[in-house]
Prior knowledge:
39% of the residues lie in helices and 22% in strands. The chain has ten helices and ten strands. The chain has a six-stranded mixed sheet, with helices on both faces. The protein binds adenosine-5'-triphosphate. Belongs to the ABC transporter superfamily.
Amino acid sequence: MSALVCAGLEAGYFKRSPCVRNVDLTLDAGEVVCLLGPNGAGKTTLLLTLAGLLTSSAGSVTVGDSAVKSGSPRAAVRSGLVLVPDDRALFRGLSVRKNLQLATHGRTRGKQALGEVLEYFPALAARLKVDAGQLSGGEQQMLAIGRALIQQPKVLLIDELSMGLAPVVVESILPILRTVAEQRGTAVVLVEQHVHLALEVADRAVILVHGEIALEEAAAVLRRDPSLVEGAYLGARKLNSTSGSSTDL
Length: 249
Ligand SMILES: Nc1ncnc2c1ncn2[C@@H]1O[C@H](COP(=O)(O)OP(=O)(O)OP(=O)(O)O)[C@@H](O)[C@H]1O
């Protein structure tokens, strides 16, 4: 059974002009998919819709064998869809420990889950008493991912993992996601601007252009032939040459 099936998904901010259309996406348990695409392609919109923070105007989302109610963050989390948003949404004035403990609220095995997170991110174990706002960008991202992992996601959605981070920091975090996917069977959808780094850890890439899937291909194929990625992006740039994409191909 697939971890996530998204069929004919359509969503956006205005009724008659969806900015994500016809999205069919299936992820197996333990699979890491990087969601790529130029600025404004609809990557964040798709993740927000999967996380129930936007209501879809068409299509369906299924996690395991359960249909997920659209537009309900609570239903999404209960189904196992957990989002790490691009702003990380940490409680900056609370300690690392408190941020993690809050995520254990209402969870059975909360303490064990917290311990597991510290095993994935030993850097956080040394910073438990420090306020989240005092952490480095990389540590904040680890905390945001750690907090999401405490929710025991079946599907982990990570938006702009590298936002504000040096590539070397991104390189240290990405393999941990791979390990999480392999050890826990968590499916991961990763939005990442450093395309070559994302392709190193992903099984598959999905390239969104103007809200629709323009290319879906095994990461190994795209690593061997990056021109396929460039081709999909360039198609978008021809139509939108002033957008100033910040993506690092
Ligand atoms: N809150 C909003 N209200 C109205 N339109 C929005 C809103 N957020 C995004 N959009 C528009 O929706 C479209 C898709 O944006 P989205 O942020 O999903 O793209 P993205 O692929 O994540 O881009 P980026 O890489 O720049 O973050 C864009 O045209 C954007 O201008």
